[in-house]
Amino acid sequence: MILPGNTSCQGCPISLAMRCLDEIENPVLVIPAGCSTVVAGLHPNSAMKIPVIHVPFASTNAVACGVKEAYKRAGVKANVIAWIGDGAADIGFATLSASATRKDDIITVVVDNEAYMNTGTQASLSTFWKAKTSTSPAGKADEKRNLALIMIAHRADYVATATVGYIEDLRRKFGKASQSEGFRFIQIHCPCPPGWRFPSEKTIEIARKAVMSGAWALFEFYDGKLRFSGIGKKFAEKGNRIPLAEYLKVQGRFEHLGDEDIVAIERAIDEEWEILKRFSGE
Which of 79, 136, 236, 243 has the most CB atoms in a 10 Å sphere around its CB? Predict the structure, then answer.
């Protein structure tokens, strides 16, 4: 789905996720400005092997809905995908929320690298607790938004979290979304080497440590129930996790953290797991 030699950074998680689009039948991408725009490139030299429409931030889900309806009227079966970053989810949240509420028959994919990486690593609402960014040089003091839980609150037909650290799980979730109908939402954890300040060859290692430490939960929500998925089931139990410091200390954005900071972050993670477990009934 994506050609080699594209303009992504070394170790880019977004290009890894784009490779998995071959699990989705007849995909059509609608992309607002961001890293994904750069990776896809400009016509006629696009790196993508599939149709791509570049749109302004806030219009993404509205355009995706319109394109899907146009395909339906033309008798063309296609999976239209609103492919956005966490920054675009901030800027276009009203449109995203309305799309989920209407149950537009599209797939929304959020490649979540926890900041506005394309414009200089400004903090987004998805930025991890206490992470340094260009707009939070002392460490982010605000809460971290859980977008997948918000989509569940919209009663979306399918909601999943995934990671580039476990590609088979990501591919399975893309395939499941492809075979379903209604509003489908997948949020992919995407560790960013230049933005998070780690060596580019460690993208997969850090993505896996996020799951293994409990910092990123893997789950699916459908038929009214949340289910922990893949290897993520194992780490729903706190006793099976690696120490959180093993995930944080390999990233430059957390180099300022002391032991008390890590304890505070772990407490916030535990609280989020308790919410997820209530949804799952475990």
Answer: 79
